[in-house]
Amino acid sequence: MAGFACFCSSSSLSFHSTLSTSSLVVGIHPAEIRPRRRRWLNVKAEVNFVNAEEAVKLIAVEGYKVLDVRDNTQFNRAHIKDCYHVPLFIENKDNDLGTIMKRTLHNNFSGLFFGLPFTKPNPEFVESVRTQFSPESKLLLVCQEGLRSTAAASRLEKAGFQNLACITSGLQSVKSGTFDSIGTSELQNAGKAGLVTVQGKISAVLGTVLICAYLFITFFPEQAEKLLELAPSS
Known about the structure:
β2 (11-17) and β3 (22-28) form a beta hairpin. With 234 residues, the chain is an alpha/beta fold. The chain is flat and about 75 Å long. The protein is 37% helix and 21% strand. The strands form four sheets. A five-stranded parallel beta sheet has the order 4-11-10-5-7. A three-stranded antiparallel beta sheet has the order 1-2-3, with no helix packed on it. It contains eight helices and twelve strands. α7 (195-219) crosses α8 (221-230).
């Protein structure tokens, strides 16, 4: 039979066929031989978000360690007993002009009304955690509102930690008695400070006074009228 041949620019392929035998010859140009790149499989950890009751089970049953990432002020007010403390943010004591202006502005507003310290990201956060835990450690990250613990979990996940959990909405959502705690306040109240707390107490007192006055006028209208008559007129 007639032969068939095909030639390409960088490789040659020839095929000969007869009634009894067939042969396939493949020619590859040396330039086509290149090393293959290896594909590495990256295993990405998934952060587990739990409520307070589920967090208790993680600690008691699965052996999770509690890592508190709040600043020192909130941690000292109240924290879970036997927890570890590595703050995600630390107090900013830098003395450059820009920092001094920002700190002054902060202290006159957020610091004064909410009792929040002027902080900056902790550059040694991941390394500090690494000195205490291996990447395989089971860690329950906690903060006051749930934002810092989520950010901390993201940083630890990128650093290779695989078993991470956070309490949704933070310690402010934890009911009294859920955890054994240490400090001068309840865990859910550790974020409250500054003039906001005073304002809350004043509002509560005024509200109580107004309610009592309303009840007095409602049930004792004649006595209330006499008291109004005794009040000096402008």
